[in-house]
Amino acid sequence: MPPRRLIIVLRPIIATLVLGPEIYFRRNDPFSQVFPLVVIILISYFVSIIFYLILKTGRRGTVHDFVQTVSDTVIITGLVNFTGSINSPYTLLYFLNIVEGSLSLRPTGSFTITTIATTSFIVLGIVWMNRHLSPEVDTLTFNVEMVHYFLKVFIFILFFYLATALITYFKERFTAGSLALEDVLMTTDDILENINSGIITIDKSGKIKHFNPAAMTILSLDKKRVMGESYKEVFSSRLKKLSDLITNFSNEEKEQKRLEIADDDGGKMLVMVTISAMMRENIGYGGKLINIVDLTVEEEIQKRLRTADRMKTALELSAGIAHEIRNPLASVQGAIEVITREIKSNERVEKLVTLVLKETKRLNNIIERFLQFVRIPQRERKNADITLVLRDVVELIKNHPMYNKGIEINTEFPQEQYIVFIDPEQIKQVFLNILLNSFTAVEKEGKIEICFLKKDNYCGIAFNDNGIGIEKEYIDKIFQPFFSKTQRGSGLGLSVAHRIIEQHKGEITVESKKEKGSTFTVWLPLVNKHLPQSH
């Protein structure tokens, strides 16, 4: 419960507990002596209600706390006055008031409250002495009584300020320590909670003491289920390799090893596990620190780099070979055209020559497309709304010979503009190639859904079909030149699309399941950063 609300709740409770028995035991006293005590209880309830309503309105702060503490000083002074003045057993409630002020106010406010309480106590003492001490009594007795009550008031005042000073001092020390601890937690906890590496700490009994979000993600485990549990039980089945590595750790030196662990989907994930003994001032206390780094992305990047290097070498070699083939092929094609004109009298030879000429033209067409893939021209680019480019492609594709009325194309166009810096004609070619690939996958009847995505400062155009899908072992090959699973395909459509998107500093990602369909997503960098987050 917040401090302000706690004070509001405790005020009437303390008043009732303190004055309730007092009223009961004085039930036979005159009503005029008991009534003020009832009034004090009612005032405490009234004051608490008032401050609760003020708190509900959101008006809170130093002034609110100061006024509330002063109100308590007034209530305590009234209570002490009606129960024996400075001889009242309830004078100790002033210390509660001082503690309240010291904890809820700054030092200046704390000492101001103490001064108000002290002044109230002095006034009570003066009033009491005027009523009960008479100079007509024996001079020695009068002087002793005066010294006694002045000493009593002095001791109370001394302890009032001493209590204020001590509480304020320790409060300031505690606040400073809390701020220092908060700074430490912000630098350590925030790093551990936001770092990409999985961090796990295990005590000497083998129980997990820390398990950061990255570890949850990498190992596909829930933090609530692993905290305080033995790592051998948590890592028993699916993560047995990790459990064995921790168990066999010698505690003498840091150990680092690559592990292939299973994820929730049954797939494999490559991670780097580093285990070290937890030390403090070179003294080990049996704890272990496990650092787990997901190497999946790194391996994917390395794989792409190796593929890109191989592709570059192959393309340079292939381009040279293509040129060497193209030159004599042109000569062969020209010679066959001349022969065709000369042997029209021989029908059988004419058919063979015509077939050769047709295949020569087809081979030349393949070489042309391959050279187009190798050397995609750098045309003028401009800012364009990618949704308009896609609209043109959808209308165009419906007039393509491969389009069948049994193929349903559903497109969700966003109302906002997605501005990208592109060559519109080349991007149209990318979309056409992906859609034609989807036509081949769904065959005569099927569904193709196109939607827009946004991630960071990239927009994504996802083409999802319910076709035959792609085998897992072929997904890494579909962008390679001349790779095709169909007899009529040249294997260059997706390769050209991939090359164009790479030149636009984008990416094409593929997700596919056999007999369930595929999703090709084209990611392009946005020009305008102030766009809606998703569609």
Spell out the blueprint of helices and strands:
Elements: H1 3-25, H2 31-56, H3 62-82, H4 93-104, H5 107-132, H6 139-194, E1 198-202, E2 208-211, H7 213-219, H8 223-226, H9 231-234, H10 240-247, E3 255-262, E4 268-280, E5 283-294, H11 296-342, H12 347-374, E6 382-385, H13 386-397, E7 407-411, E8 419-422, H14 424-442, E9 446-455, E10 458-465, H15 493-503, E11 507-513, E12 517-525
Parallel strand pairs: 7-9
Antiparallel strand pairs: 1-2, 1-5, 3-4, 4-5, 6-8, 9-10, 10-12, 11-12
Helix pairs in contact: 1-2, 2-3, 3-4, 3-5, 4-5, 4-6, 5-6, 11-12, 13-14, 14-15
Short characterization:
With 535 residues, this protein is an alpha+beta fold. It has helices spanning 3-25, 31-56, 62-82, 93-104, 107-132, 139-194, 213-219, 223-226, 231-234, 240-247, 296-342, 347-374, 386-397, 424-442, 493-503, and strands at residues 198-202, 208-211, 255-262, 268-280, 283-294, 382-385, 407-411, 419-422, 446-455, 458-465, 507-513, 517-525.
Fraction of residues in H or I helices: 55-70%
Tell how many strands the DSSP assignment holds: 12
Low-confidence stretches: 529-535
Rg: 43 Å
Largest sheet: 5 strands, antiparallel
Mean pLDDT over the residues: 80
Instruction: Provide the β-strand percentage band.
Output: 15-25%
Fold and architecture overview:
By secondary structure, the chain is of the alpha+beta class. Helices cover 57% and strands 17% of the residues. It is built from 15 helices and 12 strands. The chain has helices at 3-25, 31-56, 62-82, 93-104, 107-132, 139-194, 213-219, 223-226, 231-234, 240-247, 296-342, 347-374, 386-397, 424-442, 493-503, and strands at 198-202, 208-211, 255-262, 268-280, 283-294, 382-385, 407-411, 419-422, 446-455, 458-465, 507-513, 517-525. The protein has a 5-stranded antiparallel sheet. α4 (93-104) packs antiparallel against α5 and α13 (386-397) packs across α14. The longest helix has 56 residues, at 139-194. The chain is elongated. The two termini are 42 Å apart.
